[in-house]
Design brief:
about 525 residues, TIM Barrel, globular, 3-stranded antiparallel sheet, 3 domains
């Protein structure tokens, strides 16, 4: 097991003076010498203090843990077979990978339709999300996949109108919802509005349901990157003061004269805005869900993080009692615009352990005849093999995979390419494909034929996301056809095998050497 390297990382813009020679326990340089200017985290903390807790530079990055856990998705292999076909006729001319269906459904009466088993599970008030929302919204809508508006958007919107502690208008939230709906096609996908403690106090979900026509709302218990509330940095004194007056925790206190003077003098350049942690109880949860339904919510979900096993059990049980439509479980390691770096690396239950516990919880309720919500897994999924393994690991309960950092990366690359085309400053690496977006993006001509005159309104950031999803779709179809599973609902835990005893122990997935033992005996007689 490779543990996180302490004291130096690109995430905090720090490094060791001695390069590769560092102490494995502390991460300090083997020799710490007087006269060093302090490039490591210890040294940087000696002059910037708490600023070094967070990944940097804020607003233009996303970050995830560097910790390598004892078991991960690479410790499983996908099993193929030479016989049969599930979900299609056993005919070599029909059982071909383009005929694999990737559509899935979420919620009661299978009401939320997805063209692909992918959901972006929450991008909220960080700058990186706001700056790339156009690509995220249009790209997701075109692909027919849901997109979640994360926490604190209304509270962070300086133009929000708040009366008696309740938001009655938020141009930022309104524009995010509207943009997705403008490009939504044939009823596929959904725009989801999420709420944390502060959002609940502002009645954000009620506003989204009543005024913006949001069909899906989500309660949030946390995420895989941290076990505290959300945080961002604020470069404006006026905005920091506004947020504190709205009830947020802002550090240092932007209303104290000494801090105002320090900020104006440049002693520090950013305030921190923090959210509160929730206090979950069964009674309050059931009451909140019931009230949201009365207020018109068509679908309700819960997003929870990598908390201890008892909290996972609470999430599954409470969702069962409340008949929640779907539950997203986000594993340790996270992906974030700003979470405490050491916390992101060192807290929470890792993916395989968390999702294996989740399967056991769901299975136990199912065996007792109790309601089991649809499940989404999140936490470091990037490519099609990982998506397949996630779907198999918690089958039949998992219906889709949550991904945020990877789709956002595709959006940012698409945007950068578009800017390079417009400025006629394309790198040689891209010029080999051509100099227009139709030449560079392999799905552009398809989108052009489909959307006609509206094609020119599609930004390259959205095309980047759509094209990335196109790759995932074809890759996933190929893997599924090899396993002879021609629709998402036919994937089972038997479609993967553990490669190590530890992976088998944690997941209860058989070792590859033990797989099909009874079938082998039967075949050999």
């Amino acid at each position: 097991m490779t543990l996180t390297r302490y004291n130096a990382t690109a995430a905090t813009l720090s490094k060791n003076r001695t390069g590769g020679d560092w102490c494995p326990i502390s991460g300090m340089c083997v020799t710490c010498v007087e006269g060093c200017i302090g490039m490591c985290e210890i040294g940087k903390s000696a002059y910037r203090g708490h600023e070094v807790i967070y990944p940097q530079p804020f607003g233009i990055i996303t970050t995830a843990s560097q910790k390598a856990y004892p078991v991960d998705l690479s410790h499983f292999n996908i099993m193929g077979t030479t016989v049969g076909a599930v979900g299609i006729e056993e005919d070599s001319d029909k059982a071909i990978f383009p005929n694999v269906s990737l559509e899935t459904r979420l919620g009661h009466d299978k009401g939320i339709k997805l063209r692909l088993p992918i959901v972006i599970p929450g991008l909220g008030s960080t700058n990186i999300a706001k700056q790339n929302w156009e690509g995220l919204a249009i790209g997701s809508a075109l692909a027919g996949t849901p997109l979640t508006i994360g926490e604190n958007v209304c509270g962070m919107d300086v133009d929000s109108e708040i009366v008696n502690g309740r938001v009655i208008r938020s141009p930022e939230l309104e524009s995010r919802v509207k943009l997705y709906k403008e490009w939504q096609r044939d009823g596929y996908g959904a725009i989801i509005v999420q709420a944390n403690v502060e959002d609940s106090r502002l009645c954000v979900l009620q506003y989204a349901i009543e005024k913006l026509g949001a069909d899906v709302v989500e309660l949030k218990w946390g995420q895989g990157a941290k076990d505290i509330g959300g945080e961002v940095k604020i470069k404006s004194l006026e905005k920091a003061q506004l947020l504190q007056k709205r009830g947020y925790i802002v550090l240092p206190d932007p209303l104290e004269s000494v801090h105002i003077d320090d900020f104006n003098q440049g002693t520090f350049t950013e305030f921190e805005r923090h959210s509160r942690v929730g206090m979950v109880t069964e009674e309050s949860f059931l009451e909140t869900v019931s009230q949201l339904r009365k207020e018109g919510a068509k679908y309700i979900s819960l997003k929870t993080g990598a908390y201890r096993p008892a909290d996972l059990a609470r999430a599954v049980k409470f969702c069962s009692l409340a008949k929640i439509d779907y539950l997203t479980v986000d594993a340790a390691g996270g992906g974030t615009g700003m979470s405490p770096w050491r916390m992101m690396n060192e807290w929470g239950v890792p993916g395989i352990e968390l999702w294996s516990l989740l399967y056991k919880c769901c299975n136990r309720l199912a065996q007792k005849g109790e309601y089991v919500p649809d499940i989404l897994l999140a936490g470091g999924f990037v490519l099609e093999d990982q998506i397949f393994k996630g779907l198999a690991l918690c089958a039949p309960y998992v219906k889709a995979i949550g991904m945020a950092r990877a789709p956002l990366a595709a959006v940012m690359v698409g945007k950068t390419i578009g800017e390079s085309i417009e400025s006629e400053q394309l790198p040689i690496y891209l010029q080999r494909f051509g100099k227009t977006r139709e030449a560079i993006f392999v799905t552009a001509e398809e989108l052009k034929r489909e959307h006609g005159k509206d094609y020119n309104k599609i930004p390259t950031s959205a095309i980047g996301l759509y094209t990335y999803y196109e790759r995932l779709a074809q890759g996933l179809r190929q893997i599924m056809s090899g396993s002879r599973k021609f629709a998402i609902e036919h994937i089972t835990r038997n479609d993967i095998a553990a490669l190590t005893p530890e992976a088998a122990r944690v997941s209860d997935i058989p070792l590859v050497s033990d797989l099909d033992a009874a079938e082998v005996e039967r075949i050999l007689g």
